[in-house]
Give the backbone structure.
Amino acid sequence: MLETKFKELYEIVKRLRLECPWDKEQTNDSIKANTIEEAYEVVEAIDDKNYTELKKELGDLLLHIIFHSVIASEGNHFELEEVIDSISEKLIRRHPHVFGNVEVTGSEEVKRNWESIKLTEGRESVLEGVPKMLPALQRAHRLQEKASKVGFDWEKKEDVWKKVIEEIEEMHASEKLESPDELEKETGDVFFALVNYSRFLGINPENALRRTNEKFIKRFNYVEKKINGTGRKIDESNLMEMDKYWEESKREE
C-alpha cells in the first residue's frame, strides 16, 4: 500500500511537470527557498505539537523531495530511485551495530562511530557536511558537536562557563575601542561560547531561542492589546505603561 501511494504521488508530480505552466518553469534553484520554508513549517508544527499540521507539512516536504528529484532526472543528473538507494545504503553503512557485528554501549558511542565512518567515506574534515545556510546558532551547535565526537571538547562544564564570562568581558572591553568590526567579532565569540555551554547542559540553542522569541511575541502582543483597548496605539504609550502590562502578561502565563 505504501509503495503504491508513493508511486501515485511520484506520477502526480511528473504530470504536473508536464502539464502545469508554473511547475514546468521551476528549477532546483527556483524552489530551493520554498524547500527551506517547508522544513521550517515542519519544525513549527512540531513545536506546536499540532499533529494535523505536521502531517500536512511533512507531505509538503515530501513533495519537494520528489519535485527536486524529477527536475534533476530531466537533466540526467540522477533518478529518484538513486536518492532512495543512496540513503538506504548510507543508513546501513553507518549503523554497523544494527546491520553488522559492531557492539556499542549507548547512543554516545553510536555518534562517535558515525563521525568515524564519515571520515572513511572520503571526507577530509569531521566538520564537513554542516550546511553554511543553517541558522548561525544551529550551525555553531553542530560544529561544536561534531568536533566533540573526536575528543576536541572541554572536560568540565565549569570551564565552559568561565569561558562564557571571559568572552562577555572581552566584548564589553571592545566597546571602548570604537571598532565596529572588533565588537562584532567579540559578540560572535560570546554567542559561540554560550552555544557551547548550552550543549553541555543538553539544550539545543536554536530551540531555546525560538521558544524565547515566541514568548516575547506573546507578551508584546498582550501589551499591544491592552494599550489598543484604551483607544490608543502602541506608539502613543510610554515605557512605564508598557512595562506594567508586560509584567501583567507574565503573571497571566
Summary: The chain is about 75% helix and 0% strand.
